[in-house]
Write a structure and sequence with these properties.
Elements lengths: L1 H25 L3 H6 L3 H14 L6 H30 L4 H11 L1 H20 L5 H47 L1
Length: about 180
């Protein structure tokens, strides 16, 4: 229980730390929020696959959760960075988000698919002691399946909505001056 509690706390601390590092990197509070909008889907995928396979929450499954969220975060960073570049080039937020989703589709899918395929043998639990590490592989696979969908669909939608509001707010501020 102690290890499980510490891993859960470590997971929350890791999310917070990654968020704060992204705030520094992007010099924005909103872009990291957009990026981590894919993480709830990753958590849902992890819980879903562990439940579907009858696997318990344990230290390996929490390690898999951290791995899945790391890949999901990296994929979301790709998406938001590209959309921000298009936004800086003068494209409206919706067009920037759509272009980011279509242009980054292949890299995001390749990253997630490579990780899923790489974890499939571990998730099967075959071989001597294979069942011991199976929760790690299952958590990664479940988390990435839903996180990839969220990265390709939800993150561009959130980006478009947030940036549209920020652009509208800036226009209203300019008018009031």
């Amino acid at each position: 229980r102690d290890a499980f509690t510490r891993m859960g706390a470590g997971l929350l601390f890791a999310i917070l730390l990654v968020y704060l590092i992204m705030v520094i990197n992007f010099q924005s509070w909103t872009d990291p929020m957009i990026i981590i909008s894919a993480l709830p889907a990753a958590l849902c995928g992890i819980v879903w696959i562990l439940f579907a396979t009858g696997t318990t929450f344990n230290v390996p499954s929490l390690m898999g959760a951290i791995m899945a969220m790391g890949v999901a975060t990296a994929n979301s960073i790709l998406m938001v960075s590209f959309a921000n570049q298009r936004l800086a080039d003068g494209q409206p937020p919706m067009e920037a988000a759509l272009e980011a989703a279509s242009t980054r589709l292949r890299p995001v899918l390749m990253t997630a698919f490579a990780m899923i395929v790489g974890m499939a043998p571990m998730a099967s639990g075959l071989g001597h002691g294979g069942e011991q590490n199976a929760p790690l592989g299952r958590a990664v696979i479940g988390g990435l399946v839903l996180a990839t969908f969220a990265t390709l669909v939800l993150v561009p939608m959130v980006f478009s909505l947030v940036q549209h509001r920020l652009v509208r707010k800036a226009r209203l501020a300019d008018i009031n001056l």
